[in-house]
Design brief:
- Helix content is about 95%, strand content about 0%.
- The chain is built from one helix and no strands.
- The protein is rod-shaped, with a radius of gyration of 29 Å.
- The termini are far apart.
- The model has no long low-confidence stretch (mean pLDDT about 90).
């Protein structure tokens, strides 16, 4: 199902009637700001998730090295 030219035109006419010609630029500006903030929040969440993943991986590697060193020390002391 696709939206044709007539449907888009009808939607624009309804918006024009509901909000008036003076309010449309204000609404478009507000929607643009909202889209910008959404993109910024999404990028921030991506970065934080990646940092958490990297930190968890480093912690797991460090713990594995510590366990290996402890087991080697235990074997050599016997």
């Amino acid at each position: 199902m696709s939206i044709g030219f007539t449907e888009i035109f009808l939607i624009l006419v309804v918006i024009l009637l509901l909000f008036g010609s003076k309010r449309i630029p204000e609404l478009a500006k507000a929607m643009g700001r909202a889209a910008y903030e959404f993109k910024n929040a999404k990028e921030t969440l991506k970065k934080e998730a990646q940092e958490l993943s990297e930190n968890a991986q480093k912690a797991a590697e460090s713990e594995a090295k510590n366990e290996l060193a402890a087991s080697q020390t235990e074997v050599s002391s016997k």
